[in-house]
Amino acid sequence: MKPGGAVYSPILYEVVDFSCGVLDGEANLIAETPGLLIDDVINGYVSIGKAKEEYGVVIDENEMKIDLDATNKLKNKMMESRDAR
Q: d(Cα 51, Cα 78) in Å, to the nearest integer?
């Protein structure tokens, strides 16, 4: 292994898929696409409370679906609050 990470040599014609979750600031958290977050909530990686507080995504706890109207209102409020600082 090289310093800083693992080394992998793919086999000819092998498909390699990887992702790296890196967020570079508060603006990205607020602007993040809500649809990407619902899977993390359903899988237990992010709580409903943190989805709302940190990402500005409001989730209906009964249906486990994103409340788009409430999410849009909250995101606008969060952006206004951030811009006022």
A: 13
**Domain that residue 51 falls in:** 26-84
Instruction: Count other Cβ atoms within 10 Å, centred on residue 83.
Output: 8
Which residues, including other chains, have CB under 8 Å from residue 24's CB and lie 6 or more apart?
Answer: none
Asked if residue 17 is part of any domain, the answer here is: no
Q: How many residues does the chain have?
A: 85
What is the model's pLDDT at position 18? 63
CA-wise closest residue to 75 among 24, 40, 26, 23? 26
Half-sphere exposure of 62 (CA within 13 A, CB side): 0
pLDDT in tens, 26-77: 445 555 667 778 888 988 989 999 999 888 889 999 999 999 899 989 988 9
